[in-house]
Amino acid sequence: MRRIISVLLENEPGALSRVVGLFSQRNYNIETLTVAPTEDETLSRLTVTTTGSDKVIEQITKQLNKLIEVVKLVDLTEGSHIERELMLVKLKATGSQRAEIKRTVDIFRGQIVDVTSSVYTVQLAGSSDKLDGFVQAVGTSGVLEVVRTGVSGIARGEKVLSL
Amino acid sequence: MELLSGADMLIRSLQDEGIENIYGYPGGAALHIYDALFRQDKVKHILVRHEQAAVHMADGYARATGKPGTVLVTSGPGATNTITGIATAFMDSIPMVVLCGQVASSLIGEDAFQETDMIGVSRPVVKHNLSVRHPQDIPETIRKAYHIASTGRPGPVVVDIPKDMTTPNERYEYSYPKKVKLRSYNPAVRGHSGQIKKAVDMLLAAKRPVIYAGGGVILGKATEQLTELTRLLGYPITNTLMGIGCYPCSDKQHLGWLGMHGTYEANMTMHHSDLILAVGARFDDRVTNATEKFCPGARIVHIDIDPASISKTIDADVPIVGPVDSVLNEMLSLVKGAKEKPDADALAAWWKQIDEWRAFHGMRYETSDDVIKPQEVVEMLSRLTNGEAFVTSDVGQHQMFAAQYYKFDKPNRWINSGGLGTMGFGLPAAMGVKHTHPDDEVLCITGEGSIQMNIQELSTCKQYDLPVKIINLNNQALGMVKQWQDMNYESRHSQSYMESLPDFMKLVEAYGHVGIRIERKEDLEPKLKEALAMKDKLVFVDILIDRYEHVYPMQVARGSMKDMWLSKTERV
Q1: B539-B545-B547 Cα angle (round to 5)
Q2: Shortest CA distance to B187 belongs to which of B156, B143, B153?
């Protein structure tokens, strides 16, 4: 099952490599990984999406907690949560394609953020499924380049991951 | 406040931490530190002949004393040579701090002479590693390193120290922190009372209980509590290879150790039990055999300081995260205060069954009139040293024979690389023990394959006068490899013979020690006695043993715990 694990990490050199190293060392999957400092500059927030049986996920959270630099973590998929990913995609856009792509971007509530005579660059935010859906809708033959940030997530309601 | 250079601060920090012995090897990036070491006499340094041996020495010291070991090496090859030793300590949860020189910060990343990313290289095999970024951080970094290494589930910690952190003429205010606070590191200080209560209820209600204890009992200094609880309940107890000595081997309730080469009765008792109390053990693959066939009727209570060790391979019914000593203390007081007592009839029937299993095999082996059997060498050593020696081993058949036939009644006496299985561990580990226990008998039971992996340390033994006794069970082959080839590869002995062995007698004499060779069975006892009588000499006893012997019992691969070979021809 796919899980989103959110981690508060000491904002120190080498901390990220320990997390990444742990996943490869213990043969766990990383599907996406995002990391950036938080409002508290001593902490980074890292979000990792992974897949595995319940037993594997339990081990992943335990092993992450064992890392000295991991301060706190939560498996967001255990409760209701919001997940977002940002995608920038360059699409071939010539002739009649231009209007069609513009309409599809509107349907997906994306924005065209750069334009040349033959290329649109589109920005789209949403769940990973939605981004996949957009790429499918425009057709892979028109896609010149895709860049995705990976998933960020936060719990719904009043639950907060903080110190 | 005192002004000290980074190098002096490092050595002062070791003094203030109470470190008396360090093991190491100098080199360019560590020279400021070695100079600071020279200008004081509180911290003693042992110069090894290869950095790997320094780590095993520190490891042997840590296992025998329960205190963290300390290693000091230079950057690059000095640091990378420690990796096998660090991984050995990591797998067996041994507290240790490894101080590594590093090239100056301005050179890091430039492929400088003797530069290695030791933080990166060591990361998968350390509990944690730390890099010094400013000389003033040295005292706190050292305090942190020992704190992390020796608390919770212990393990090795590497500290990487760029050369410019230790420059002699740059001085800073020194003070050693009394406490260290890490918001992200808070090992459990006690177990959950509700879980402990539940565990005790299950324990008292069990009909076919068994206690399965691991190295965590020794590391957690809980052998007294475990012994008291076991005797109070009257239940059978087995332990892992790493747990040897956590409960007296000679006691009637002790079944010997369990797993791949464990006793018949220990494995049978585990398989047929209805309740397993696992204490500081981790259900390693060398214990469980095929996990899906593991002890089908047993419910499991698992006590461990490391939550990640619980339900990692075998699911626990009652997990208890906490230090084994405090959890066992709580269990003891609950058992003492409980109204219900263990079911005496069920327990009597269980013991009757266990005694039958015990009588069925009883660790028998075939003896011979002319060939020396490795088992009888170990039995004799156990008798001649009253089971009180510190025994280190390398890895292979000799390790199993030593663990099976030496009767350990005390903890911290059996010292081996159980997790990583490191050949070359035995001699330097024995040196680390002997160095701090000069009046105790220290035996290194080894084989002619393993001993050659760190034999250069005979030179260190000469320099520091470390009269360990090396018992070389010489079967002229890599015995365990050969055994597997016999059993699984139709005796195709691919690369498992040790041809052109050195003349060990000449070799040890060249290093300034005494060699004794035993070829005939009738010489075994008198010559072993002669070796043990030379208290102040390192004696290398080279014993020609049966070349064809196998280690039994041996669990059948991918079977359950009860599926074993009991000899070359008997399978149960």
Answers
A1: 140
A2: B153
**CATH number of residue A111's parent domain:** 3.30.70.1150
User: How buried is residue A41: exposed, middle or buried, by Cβ count under 10 Å (0-12/13-18/19+)?
Assistant: exposed
Contact A163 B183 (CB under 8 A): yes
Cα B171 from Cα B548, distance rounded (Å): 64
Rounded CA Rg of chain B: 25
| ipTM for the predicted complex | 0.93
Question: Is the per-residue pLDDT at A112 higher than 90?
Answer: yes
Pair of tokens at residue B204: 């008292």
Q: How far is CA B362 from CA B357, B405, B410, B566, in A?
A: 8, 11, 22, 10
Q: Evaluate the omega torsion of the peptide bond into residue B124 and state whether it is cis, within 30 degrees of 0.
A: no
DSSP structure string for B289-302: SSGGGS-TT-EEEE
Contact between B308 and A17 using a beta-carbon 8 Å cutoff: no
Q: How confident is the model over B42-71, as pLDDT tens digits?
A: 999 999 999 999 999 999 999 999 999 999
* pLDDT tier at B499, thresholds 50, 70, 90: confident
- Provide the residue count of chain A: 163
Give the confidence band of A140 by pLDDT, cuts at 50, 70, 90.
Answer: confident
Average pLDDT, chain B: 97
B467: closest CA of chain A, how far (Å): 40
Which pTM was predicted? 0.97
Chain CA centroid to CA B484, Å: 24
Alpha-carbon distance of B70 to B436, in angstroms, equals: 13
Domains located in chain B, CATH noted: 3-173 (3.40.50.970), 193-361 (3.40.50.1220), 374-551 (3.40.50.970)
How close, in Å, is residue B191 to chain A by CA atoms? 17
Q: Does the pLDDT of residue A141 top 90, yes or no?
A: no
